Amino acid sequence: MLRLEKLVKTYKTGDQALKAVDLDIPEGQVLALIGPSGAGKSTLIRCINRLVEPSSGQVYLGETELTGLSSGALRRERRRMGMIFQEYALVERLTVMENVLSGRLGYVGFWRSFLRKYPQKDVDEAFRLLDRVGLLEMADKRADELSGGQRQRVGICRALIQDPALLLVDEPTASLDPKTSRQIMRLICELCKERGLAAIINIHDVALAQMFVQRVIGLRFGAIEFDGPPDALTPDVLTTIYGEEDWEATIESVDEEDLEVAE
Ligand SMILES: Nc1ncnc2c1ncn2[C@@H]1O[C@H](COP(=O)(O)OP(=O)(O)OP(=O)(O)O)[C@@H](O)[C@H]1O
């Protein structure tokens, strides 16, 4: 459902962030993108919806080549790609409900959104989503009154109310404590499963990635170094992605966490 062909991004500074990346993601697959700082993870995610313009190569969402679209057509296609950010990107002075509904801005006309008059079906869906993520009681609170984990749940609802085919998730847990991080990752993966949604999750925490996804992509210097199931991430593989480190500790901690999740 998503296909990248020879995707290259070279920034004006000369940094080659992506070097001819090929990637195919089937419908409903949740994939973690790991790799050291500067490997090109955020660039990859942002080149897919063209928040960052690729230098060359193609991105296909289904049959549509995103890289060939005019700005109007791209705006319409972006509705099919929900984005979840590390810093939540909520409007602080708006309520939880208003933040969630802002995910419909790509669908409603300018005046409707300006006057915040969303169709009732959108409001109903926002309530359903807030209920699903455990925030129904918070609908009228201002975003700046929420904890980090609650904010991220609002960010998730805002992405889902777009009714996307694909989620692009950029370090969703980087600002959260370990327990909340696990809850948020679990929630994202459960929601993808419920909705048959594909997702690419850029995540620094290897153990967390291994715990929840079916497929891991390891990026290094803008190229795919590893593509496989989480249990194939051996210490040797992690060393090729990240360089020398004591990986046994990371892998052991996954085993412990797995037990905890299974309980
Ligand atoms: N706007 C920019 N202008 C110039 N170079 C950039 C820009 N954004 C990223 N880069 C460079 O591109 C490369 C990849 O950066 P990117 O942010 O995609 O990596 P990352 O894997 O997401 O890193 P991190 O895990 O630290 O967020 C780096 O060398 C970075 O310095």
UniProtKB/TrEMBL annotation:
Does the keyword ATP-binding belong to this entry?
A: yes
SUPFAM superfamilies the record matches: P-loop containing nucleoside triphosphate hydrolases
Presence of keyword Nucleotide-binding: yes
- ABC transporter domain boundaries: 2-246
Q: Name one GO molecular function term.
A: ATP binding
Q: Print the keywords alphabetically.
A: ATP-binding, Cell inner membrane, Cell membrane, Membrane, Nucleotide-binding, Translocase, Transport
Signal peptide residues are none
Read off the NCBIfam families from this record: ABC_phnC
User: In its UniProt entry, what is this protein called?
Assistant: Phosphonate ABC transporter ATP-binding protein
> From which source organism is this entry?
Parasulfitobacter algicola
